[in-house]
Specification:
By secondary structure, this protein is an alpha+beta fold. The chain is built from four helices and 19 strands. Strands 2-7-17-18-6-5 form a six-stranded antiparallel β-sheet, covered by helices on one side. The radius of gyration is 31 Å and the shape is elongated. The N terminus is likely disordered.
Amino acid sequence: MEKLTKITKSILLVLISTAILFTSINTNAVASSIQLGGATEVPGYVSGVHFTTKTKTDGSLLYCLNMNKRTAKNVTAKLVGQRDAGVAYIVTNGYPNKSFTGDKTKDYYITQTALWWYLDNTTGSSNLSQKFKTTGEDKHNLRPTIKALVAKAEAAKKKGYPETKLAISTNNVSMTLQDGYYISQEIYAKTYSNISEYSVSVSGATNAQIISSTGKEVSKVKVADKFRVKVPASSVKATEMSIKVTATATGVVYKAYEYQPTDSSMQPVTAAIPEKETVKATANLTLEIESSKVSIIKVDKKTGNALAGATLV
């Protein structure tokens, strides 16, 4: 009697757990205090509203969060906290990160007044008059651009800051035996807008591989692509075997922070270029490999008794 072992059951992809892990913000990236430099007068392009620029001593631009306070310049400002996603949207999508007119002064004006207008709409502040927002003189036609930036910032506030999330498809995925390898159906990971690619690794199986849709072994997968798990049949020794598939991604979230001068009568400011926050997310799945044993015995046709020493070809 000879016992042959053949794996007959599919290997199913079973979701055991999905864990999303966030690293804490990199405190080295967010300064606890900044040093403000000088201020330069900006013309009153719309409705005669004029003000001064805000800068750090290194020349990088800042934006004022309260027009009604005294101009903040040549002082130290301490970190107060994080502002909402709408503020971050304006400073990320305003000058100097983006240009609206090609004129630096006008672009700064658009960004600063959009920030004040946004704060008026969302916090009840009164930085800008109704005349500025409606019928005030606007020779350079800046108001439509300012208003559009405010509307987009309000939409960003509703959405909130993007979260770096990653989740592998949870439907059962079978694996088939092909040329000495068990190869899974296509698997994909759902990600969010601040992730462009993710890394994939496999543990629990010797010489397991992650392969692209073209069959090439990879370690990273683009968000729009799918991947397969490839396991040598020779490494499947037990009747049951768990293989863990881990996908990891890093996203960058741009956030805005408020800084207040030591003299509280001076204007609080926010950075024109928000700080970066890097977070990591990991999703884990487990491949459960199930197998059964099939015994083939040669028997006597008449008696049904097993034939000792029989061999099969």
